Each structure stands twice: as C-alpha cells, then as structure tokens.
Amino acid sequence: MVTLEAGLTLRNSNFSVVLSHPKASRVVISVPQDTLMPNDFLGSFARRKRGIHGRDRHVWPIVHDCVRLALKRSMRIDTVRFLFPRAFIDANREAAGGPNFDDETLGQTAYDAPELSSVYETYHGEIARLIGRSCRRFGSEKILFVDMHGFGVQPERLAPRTYDLILGTASRTTISHGSVDRSFAGYMRERGYTVFLPEEQPVCSEGDPYSAGHTTRFYSRRFGVNAIQIEIARRFRVREGEADGKRLAADMAEFFIANYA
C-alpha cells in the first residue's frame, strides 16, 4: 500500500487497484474494463466463450484525475479499478449461478475458468466494502455509485444524435432517491457536453443503449444507493483528446464536490 496525499492510499490486491481514504466517501466509482492486455495471459486460462472481449481504454486516467482534483477541494472519492483482461473475466457480468438483471447479456457470465473466481470476487468484494462503509456512515440515500466505462462507436439506436456521455440507469430503476441522474446530465450539458439521459421509457423498442449493466443494477439493489453507469466517448480517451479528457475529469469532479462533499 502506498500513501499519496491527505490520507489517500493506493493498493493493489489480486488484480484490483483501490484508491481510497481512511474515512468513508459519499461517491464510489468502479472501472471494470480498463484492463491489462489479454496477450499476457494467453494459454493460461480459458477465454470467455460469450461476450465482448475489448477494453475500455484510458477510462482510468479520467477517473484518477477526478479523484485527485476532488481531493484538492477536500472531497473524498473512493475508486476500484479491475485489471484482469476482459477476454478472461468481464467484471460487469454475473458469476455463473449468480443473479442476472440485464436481459441483453443473458447467457453471458463473468468467466469460464473456475480458477479465476477469487480474482472476480476480490474486485466485487472491494466495491461492496467501500459502498457498505459509506452507507453505514452516511445512509444509503446519500451515496452515489458510478460504474465508469468507455464507448468507441456511437450507438445506431441514438442516430443521428451523437453523445459525449451516455448514462445508464436501467430506465431509472437504479435511481432510488431524488434525481441525481437528471442533475448530473443538466450540469454537464451546461458545460457543453452532449449527454444521453435515460427516462422511465426507453427511446426505442430495442431499449436504451448501455442501459446499465450487472454492476450498476446489482449494487443499486443490494445497498439501495443511487447508481449510474457512465459511458465516455472515445474522443476523450485518445492521445489527441487528452486536454478534453482532463477537462471532463475536472467538470465531473466539480459536480461531485457541489453535491457530495
């Protein structure tokens, strides 16, 4: 474990990187798919037979900047990043035999190699630990859990509109208290971002794109907290968009400070 500043610690355990504070935070962020490269593990484990294998590249630098910027203003954000390649473990899927809340991924499981169960369980154990201690200190109605992702291609379901951020709340079923999803979307729109905001009814018969995966739905139900999946467009996560990514991190940090400090 490494202590960075103002009590913020960095710890890596069983392919889960945890940035956390001695005291609980009202915001917990997970990053499940900005992982290591799969080639480092080829031949060692069974690949997942069903589901996407790609990485959400460079989501972590945006989240890391957000945490550090908030801390400069005395606001705590706890985060967990998963490192094991998605080709072998998709941390945003349920384990075999576990509860499934997302019909779009029905039949997909987190991993096919049973020896990887402890890696998956460590990641989700860290998320549960951080959210649990936050709820005990502040009450579930005052906690926000964010599952942070990245997307590369604008969804056809939303054409011709294009978006910088796509929120997923499973038709607002992961919003248990108030309207933080609407507040966040409005805040970011005022700062010039295009944001897709789900409502109670999907925008098309196939359902909203990125409508919140297993992690968002599971922890919303388990702890009764507000939970949002946030998908970040590729342009914020490439080298030539580094300045835009840093601005996005700063703007998200400002929202969290204004609402959860």
Provide a short characterization of the protein structure.
This protein has 261 residues and is of the alpha/beta class.
The CATH architecture name reads: 3-Layer(aba) Sandwich
Helical proportion? 25-40%
Q: Rough shape?
A: globular
Beta strand % = 15-25%
Total individual domains = 1
Instruction: Identify the CATH homologous superfamily.
Output: Zn-dependent exopeptidases
Q: Which runs of at least 5 residues are low in confidence (pLDDT < 50)?
A: none
Structural class: alpha/beta
Q: Tell me the radius of gyration.
A: 17 Å
Task: Please give a structural write-up.
There is one protein chain. With 261 residues, the protein is of the alpha/beta class. It has one domain: Aminopeptidase (3-Layer(aba) Sandwich), CATH 3.40.630.40. It contains five helices and nine strands. The chain has helices spanning 60-72, 117-138, 180-190, 214-223, 242-260, and strands spanning 2-5, 8-13, 16-20, 27-31, 78-82, 144-151, 165-168, 195-196, 226-233. The chain has a nine-stranded mixed β-sheet with strand order 1-2-3-5-4-6-9-7-8, sandwiched between helices.
